[in-house]
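Morning. Coffee machine broken again, so started the prediction first thing and wrote up yesterday's gels while waiting. Chain of 166 residues, entered below exactly as on the submission form.
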Amino acid sequence: MSPSKPYRPNVGVALFNASGRVLIGRRFKDDGPEIVLPGLEWQMPQGGIDEGEDPRQAVMRELWEETGAVSADYLGETDWMTYEFPSHPVPPSHRLAKFRGQRQKWFALRFTGRDDEIDPLTPRNGQPAEFDQWRWERLDRVADLVVPFRRDVYRAVAARFAEFAG
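Came back before lunch.
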């Protein structure tokens, strides 16, 4: 990606259940520079911060949009981190084409609801569903399940939030 392009402001969600595992979803489509590689379709929920939106509000909105979950308590957050999108032909009209990558702040949240609250298949806020499955996973394993260009960020998130893992 071009270094002249900005990073997209973004939040990530490490949603921990009572056993200390985090929610991950399996992406079911390629999405421009966020291409999904076979066997590496899993990730934690994440999404863009709207203009003027506070990151703490964005993280709750993104959690709801991507999973349906609303029962979550704040545990902590990271400093800002970045990753670059890999080179991938993207039409100029694509929503991510104007960005070189993402600038993210990750939040640790404790899920206080029941598993049946989680429904990633229902579109919300006019956003298409991104995940076709979900599961609880050990935080220290998640970096091995994501596309390579996200792994450094996921390892940093795992180190920062290890105290919340089971």
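The helical segments are 55-67, 139-142, 151-160. Going to sketch it on the whiteboard this afternoon.
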